[in-house]
């Protein structure tokens, strides 16, 4: 199984430190962050106010969305490493050289 190296910028890590994450770890993180963002979005919907009107919630949602996007990118790289070329159908337009 392949792994992706993360660089500094993740909370609690020292600048320049690298840690390899495998497919299972990245998938687990994507699920965790997706649930976190979903709970914030649902809370905003229940209160029927725009997230931007509540600074802390909005900041939390931005952080969760940013981390989720980052890990989704790592997941894409792991998938590409695992399956090589021409495996994408739904998301081919999302990558350079895709149809």
Could you characterize what this model shows?
The relative contact order is 0.14. A two-stranded antiparallel sheet has the order 1-2. About 13% of the residues have low confidence. It has 2 helices and 2 strands, in the order E-E-H-H. Helices cover 55% and strands 8% of the residues. It has 99 residues and is mostly helical. It has one domain. Helix 1 packs antiparallel against helix 2.
Structural class: mainly alpha
- End-to-end Cα distance, whole Å, is 27 Å
Q: Estimate the global geometry from the Cα principal axes.
A: elongated
| Spatial arrangement of strands, main beta sheet | 1-2
**Which regions have little confidence, pLDDT < 50, spanning 5+ residues?**
6-18
One letter per element, helices H and strands E, the order comes to EEHH
What is the averaged pLDDT score? 75
Q: Count of DSSP E strands?
A: 2
**Share of helix, binned:** 40-55%
The structural domain count equals 1
Number of helices: 2
Biggest beta sheet attributes: 2 strands, antiparallel
Supply Rg: 16 Å
Strand content of the residues, in percent? 5-15%
Strand and helix map with partners:
Layout: E1 3-6, E2 19-22, H1 23-47, H2 55-83
Antiparallel strand pairs: 1-2
